[in-house]
Amino acid sequence: MQDNTPRWYVIQVISGTEENVKQSLFQRRESFGLEDYIIDVFVPTHDVVTVRAGGTKVKKKKNILPGYILVEMVVSNESWYIVRNTPNVTGFLGAGNIPVPVSGDELAQLKWKVESKEETFSTKFKTGEMAIITKWAFEWNEGMITEVNETKWLVKVNINLLWRDTPIELDFSQIVVK
Which CATH architecture fits 7-121? Predict the structure, then answer.
């Protein structure tokens, strides 16, 4: 099993261990002197911003393909064995024991998806929930969330102002859910 052309292969890993496997592959590559065989490792991710209670914004990397990573390598018996026996690797994507390389079009499409994917926002705010305003002129007023705009990080909250519901627009950081 010797192919002298470096190609990209999809490796199945235990979900949640993608970054650890990437680091392990780089360490094993150096330990076994396979720098010419295991060229690169790619974990397709994008940024997700989560807004927590009190308006704290937390940015995390989220895997686009959980449980899979891509490895650019020259397949030899030794490189194939080292990658396959890396902790948390469950196998190559392919037919039986023969790894199947990713086509150039598939790789380009995946890389384009990663590069073009903008930050996504994740929040626990939902319409219909009661919220307490923690900042701004209406601090400590309560109201019902009537609209959530995750792309702009804004919520619309109806508060009781002069005995009528008044909608106000607030930043995620200005409210907590009751």
Answer: 2-Layer Sandwich (3.30)
